[in-house]
Amino acid sequence: LARPIITLTTDFGSNDHLVGAMKGVILKVNPDAEIIDISHKVIPYDILDGALTIAQAYRYFPLRTVHIVVVDPGVGTQRRPLLVSGDQHYFVAPDNGVLSAVYEREERLTVRHITAEHYFLSPMSNTFHGRDIFAPCAAWMTKNGQSASFGDAITDYVKFSLPKPKTADGVVKGVVLKVDNFGNAITNLAAEDVPQLLSANTKFTLTVGGKPVTRFAQSYSQGEPGEAFAIIGSSGFLEVSMNRASAAKTLGVQRGAEVSVEIGS
Amino acid sequence: LARPIITLTTDFGSNDHLVGAMKGVILKVNPDAEIIDISHKVIPYDILDGALTIAQAYRYFPLRTVHIVVVDPGVGTQRRPLLVSGDQHYFVAPDNGVLSAVYEREERLTVRHITAEHYFLSPMSNTFHGRDIFAPCAAWMTKNGQSASFGDAITDYVKFSLPKPKTADGVVKGVVLKVDNFGNAITNLAAEDVPQLLSANTKFTLTVGGKPVTRFAQSYSQGEPGEAFAIIGSSGFLEVSMNRASAAKTLGVQRGAEVSVEIGS
Amino acid sequence: LARPIITLTTDFGSNDHLVGAMKGVILKVNPDAEIIDISHKVIPYDILDGALTIAQAYRYFPLRTVHIVVVDPGVGTQRRPLLVSGDQHYFVAPDNGVLSAVYEREERLTVRHITAEHYFLSPMSNTFHGRDIFAPCAAWMTKNGQSASFGDAITDYVKFSLPKPKTADGVVKGVVLKVDNFGNAITNLAAEDVPQLLSANTKFTLTVGGKPVTRFAQSYSQGEPGEAFAIIGSSGFLEVSMNRASAAKTLGVQRGAEVSVEIGS
After folding, report:
1. Quick one: which of B146, B162, C20, C66 has the most CB atoms within 10 Å?
2. Which residues, other chains included, contact B233 with Cβ-Cβ below 8 Å and sequence gap of 6+?
3. Residue A245's pLDDT is what?
4. Is-cis flag, bond preceding C73, omega within 30?
5. Taking a C-beta distance cutoff of 8 angstroms, is the pair B175, B244 a contact?
6. Phi and psi (nearest 5°) for A127?
7. Are C233 and C217 in contact, with CB atoms under 8 Å apart?
8. Alpha-carbon span C38 to B117, nearest angstrom
9. Which residue in B57, B222, B234 is closest to A20 by CB distance?
10. Nearest 5°: phi and psi at C16?
11. Using an 8 Å Cβ cutoff, are B39 and B53 in contact?
12. Nearest of A149, A133, A6 to residue A80 by alpha carbon
């Protein structure tokens, strides 16, 4: 039998004992669990950033992995804790939309409101449900495999729409969703939103931060020193990048910046 | 048999190979060990910060977990390496007080001076006992379970008193012990030091950084935008917090800042 | 049978899902693999920094550990992916010199150009071979142990010379290779390059950043407050350090700074 795997995606950072305490709770329930950090550097309180982070990573994990996602500004209120069963993976998270990108990608889903308090840590705090609810529930899920024992299925869970590209007058408009560790400005334009860019010799003007980008590259190292270019990144989205330098810093672009692509001229 | 668990709490940061080398040493001795990072962002050389970090996390781990704690400005001197056996956990650390909060919490303890050099890495450096002494000793402890084989019990180990709240003229005075990733200013006032705050409708003035805080909240999201409030955090201590913002930054408060609480207008 | 161990050394940082995705890919191929982070904070695109990081850590790991090293500015170009078999360890990395320090240390090596595309993730990106090539190849290597199945041995792999100390007119000249988390300025002068320093009472002047250092210490805590001193660090190289303070910051020294040591007066 393969080892049960639990992943963690949070906005807790790495300066504190918080993530360590969650891991202890998991291992006390299921000492066989393999715990994998996806990221603890989600922008604090930022549900969209959390939603994007888990969406980029979860499908690479084995069947039956349980993904804990804790970006939880409403901790201690009436917002519900959820156990979500997809086709191949499970998710444990607050009901605040942080799984919205998972809901978009997964065809069949059961979303349960976790009410089985016997799985919770006791005593329970009002401020750290990552440790007191989400960690032990994920660990019990790997141990007993009984998703129905956690609570009833619901349909009115919180889901927000991810920002979508818009096309008008031949101009495709989108937004920078994230700036990564290398300064690549990752947009919400998928390759299929701008198919002409991928053909050699298509003339286009991408505008971001008021600056024009007119070259499409197949790999980062094709860029000339100091040149910003467009490229399809590893998640299938258009990025504005530079060769061995930060495009975001050079162009003065941050998360949320508008991007437009005009073909021709 | 459950897998042996070893946790790591250090001030090594994550930029270097140091933590990786410790993990290699552990796995070479005991390839079955499960290694869990609690934090490597203890403030460099800061024994109090290390003591608080391990104290908040260790008790969530399973029985017989071995906790390595390396905040060790005296590495290479005569300060002793220790193996500490508590009721449920083991600790491997330098004898400089970094386990003081563990000594306060654990009722029964055996503190041993590690002298069994055959467990050490050879050759041994003067500057990295995390790799050369603490990692292999923790790994051997998970392997042979023979704490007495590491050295004799001692009673004159280094222990400092954690800063305690003081009450005079109805004013409770304490200190900010830590600012966490969300900007919560965590004090050394436990819930039982200020019991009246927890009752609804008690009037009080908490003063920190020269600013008054007069509201007690049950959850972070009860705070109005821009409002600092008091709350009991997940370790049972009073925090000064804000809803989706950094109270510490907004109030200009850092670790070490004085806090006072006066009940009644 | 001992669990297979895979280590990760990258310049991906910890803000993104990148490392998490690599771990998912590994576990999907080999759920028994134990994955250990050495560092994800290699200076972005810096092949020398990556080469030094893996060189300081790999030999502490058990026999047959597979080390993934991804500092890969040429991803998506013709640069080859490699599987390197040393006496005790395996390495998976791009053929750009990032294993140069491993090549220097290992006496017997087989370097293979990975061409067995059936091991790769499909579809494969042009921008993230850490996830699409290096992670799955490392995982398959731990699973089948058949290094020859990955591709043919080559001899024209990329190798650069690490910066070496030079001696002229009795002065030994070197360079700062790295500044660590504590502000120690680690040089490329090995203990054997400056044997006189290690004898008590040798007079010497080490110059770095235009400032003279004239004392050799056996441990960090021997330094007086504010005093910079020379010491042999845990990897056997000369460091310029201070007691509980950052020598690099105090002396205004960064990576790449020249260091000279003159014995006598």
Report:
1. C20
2. A125, A127, A128, B184, B186, B239, B241
3. 96
4. no
5. no
6. -120, -5
7. no
8. 27
9. B57
10. -115, 180
11. yes
12. A133
Name every chain B residue with its beta carbon within 8 A of the beta carbon of C53. Answer: 16-17
Q: Which residues of A touch B244 (CB under 8 A)?
A: 44-45, 73
Q: Which of C127, C129, C131, C143 to mutate to test the interface with A (most CBs of A within 10 A)?
A: C127
Cβ within 8 Å of residue C105, ≥6 positions away: C55, C59
Mention every residue, 6+ apart, whose C-beta is less than 8 A from residue C237: C177, C186, C187, C188, C189, C190, C191
pLDDT at B1: 61
Q: Are B242 and B223 in contact (CB under 8 A)?
A: yes
CB-based contact C158:C119 (threshold 8 Å): no
Question: What span, in angstroms and rounded, lies between the C-alpha atoms of B181 and B238?
Answer: 16
* Pairs of residues, one from chain B and one from chain C, whose beta carbons lie less than 8 Å apart: 105
Terminal C-alpha separation, chain B: 58
How far is residue C189's CA from residue C209's CA, in Å, rounded to a whole number?
16
The first and second tokens of residue A18, run together, are: 């918080």
Query: Is A164 in a helix, a strand, or coil?
Result: coil
The residue of chain A nearest to residue B218, with distances taken between CA atoms, is A126
- For residue range B47-92, what is the model confidence (pLDDT) as tens digits? 999 999 999 999 999 999 999 999 999 999 999 999 999 999 999 9
Rounded-to-integer distance, Cα B86 and Cα C33, Å: 32
Report the residue of A59, A67, A234 to disrupt the C interface, i.e. the one with the largest count of C CBs within 10 Å. Answer: A234
Which tens digits make up the pLDDT trace of B171-229? Answer: 999 999 999 999 999 999 999 999 988 887 889 999 999 999 999 999 999 999 999 99
Q: Tokens 């109805």 label which residue? A: B170
- pLDDT tens-digit readout, A197-220: 888 788 999 999 999 999 999 999
Q: What is the DSSP letter of B143?
A: H
Nearest CB among A54, A61, A220 relative to C28 is that of A61
How near does any CA of chain B get to the CA of A202, in Å? 42
Residue environment code for B20-30, b if the CB has 16+ CB neighbours within 10 A, otherwise e: bbbbbbbbbbb
Q: Where are the extended beta strands (E) located within chain C?
A: 5-10, 34-39, 66-70, 81-85, 90-94, 110-113, 166-168, 171-179, 185-190, 204-208, 211-213, 229-232, 237-241, 258-263
Distance from CA of B56 to the nearest CA of A (A): 7
Give a three-class secondary structure readout of A45-101.
CCHHHHHHHHHHHHHHCCCCCEEEEECCCCCCCCCCEEEEECCCCEEEEECCCCCHH
- pTM of the entire predicted model: 0.96
Partners of B73 on chain C (C-beta within 8 Å) are: 220-221, 243-244
**Structure token pair of residue B41:** 């962002």
Complex-level ipTM: 0.95
Strand A185-190 versus strand A171-179 pairing type? antiparallel
Instruction: Decide: C139 and C77 in contact? Cβ < 8 Å.
Output: no
CA distance A6 to A23: 10
- Hey, are the CB atoms on C57 and B21 less than 8 Å from each other? yes
Q: In chain C, which residue's Cα lies nearest the Cα of A186?
A: C16
| Burial of A252 (C-beta count, 10 Å sphere; 0-12/13-18/19+) | exposed
Q: Which residues pair with C186 in a beta bridge?
A: C178, C239
